[in-house]
Amino acid sequence: MMITYQTGDLAKQYHISVRTIQYYDKQGLLTTVTTGENGRRIFDDESKRDLEIILILKQFGFSLKDIKKIMLQDNKLQTVRTMLQQRAIEVENELKSQQILLKEVREFSEYIGESSDASLEKILNTQHYVKAKPKLKRVTRPIMYSIVPVVILQHTSLVASIYMKKWWPFILAMPFLIGYAAYFTHYIYQKVTYICPNCQSTFNPKLLNWMFARHTPQTRRLSCPHCNQVNNCIATAK
Questions:
Q1: CA 185 from chain center: how many Å?
Q2: Which of 29, 90, 107, 195 fits as disulfide partner to 24, beta carbons 3.0 to 4.6 Å?
Q3: DSSP-derived 3-state class of residue 223
């Protein structure tokens, strides 16, 4: 005895809507159907199998047009393999695009404070700051490279002093270390300005406030002279 299923039975079994099955039927994807005495469509085991295949292919992102093409091919499984390989390439490209978008979204959101009261038009300023971010790296990169030999000198002089049990190697290095620290501080202060995440304005803090503010490599805890809000203001190149 042939087992039959009504549209609602299949919809409930596969957790999809009745309209979805009716649409697949209308598109000619479920071919082994009959009409019952009450005018309702009745599906058999072959229809059920076709529906399972459609749902598997749908989860891989195939369109109904592609699925119909697969089901009409003689070597169906080989066709699926070929299309899966192409789909894998598409997904990889989509992932790369999404990763780039995610990075841009996170970068953009960094420039906007949680309680920002700036108007929407300030988003134009935000976009400008984000685009200018690579310029800051070009400004600070030479200093970052020059830190390495300075750190080596500092540690070498300290180790030599400890080993020799005399402080003169470290004392001799101190003027150079202090001079470099002063140069480094002056250089960064002259090259960098700060963005208020609340009002999206840029400003140059006073030197002493800047020097003693809590900071990370990208931000400093500063008071904005435009909105008087204290925030982790973001560094950007002048």
A1: 33
A2: 29
A3: strand
**Domains, the chain, with CATH or none:** 5-71 (1.10.1660.10), 120-237 (no CATH)
DSSP summary character for residue 215 = B
Place of tokens 């979805």: 20
Report the pLDDT value the prediction gives residue 112, as an integer from 0 to 100.
93
pTM of this structure: 0.65
3-state secondary structure of 220: strand
Q: Token match 């190149």: residue?
A: 237
- Summarize pLDDT for 49-106 with one digit per residue, the tens: 999 999 999 999 999 999 998 888 888 889 899 999 999 999 999 999 999 999 999 9
The angle that helices 133-164 and 123-131 make with each other, rounded to 10 degrees, is: 50
The answer to whether 197 touches 235, Cβ cutoff 8 Å, is no
Question: What is the C-alpha to C-alpha distance for residues 112 and 234, in angstroms, rounded to an integer?
Answer: 10
The CA R_g of the chain, rounded to the nearest whole Å, is 33
Phi, psi of 147 (to 5 degrees): -65, -35
